[in-house]
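Same chain as my last thread, 240 residues:
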Amino acid sequence: MIRVFVMIVGFFVMYASHSAHAQTSFDGSGANGGSIILGYDSRDCDGTIEGAIRYNSGSSCAEFCDGTAWRCPNSGCAAPASCSNVGDVCSDGSLFAGFVLYSNSSCEPIFVTATTQSTGIQYSSTSLNDSTDDVIDGRTNHNWIVANRTLSDYPAVEMCENLTDHGRSDWYVPTSGEFNVIYANKSAIDANATDPIGSNDFWLSLEWYDEQQHLFYSENASVSATNNTGLNYLRCIRRD
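reply #2:
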């Protein structure tokens, strides 16, 4: 077992010394042994690096390259082929914002538009009392309103529903769970966005109580309730 371990460590040290993209290191300071610390590899996954592994802080996962895409073995997360790094501009012009693990246990990439849809829009102009209480899946909340309410009473939802951007027409208002991912990757997203996420206050598709809706404060990553008729920022998202 010791010989196998040494061989493995030797492989990573050799790989690190021969690759400009590797940031692999060995930490042997622990009382009970050591650990291998993986770095990030920004290359697209293809056949030339099949079998490579990297650590992706956006998905909090040690991903491996299967020859086609970087994949997270524990959750099934697979980065989009045209934008493998969080914050990358995808082939359609949208931005890869990170991964969300939904209630059906599927790990899916989410995408944000390159621009902010509005810097001051109402979430709704009427009392809510809606069944929009999914804290993770904004598409579920969005589709419920589209199916059960008069869309014109919900300006923010209507704007995302009618949005055709980057050749896509399936945008929706994110939840707190989805926007937390966006916030965690804000620096990478803002680096390539036409309009940065910045420190603005964004609507979330999560009802708090009649006439109140959740709001995400990007300045300090907090979520709070506010009157749904107020004017706040809107950034639509989508997923495949």
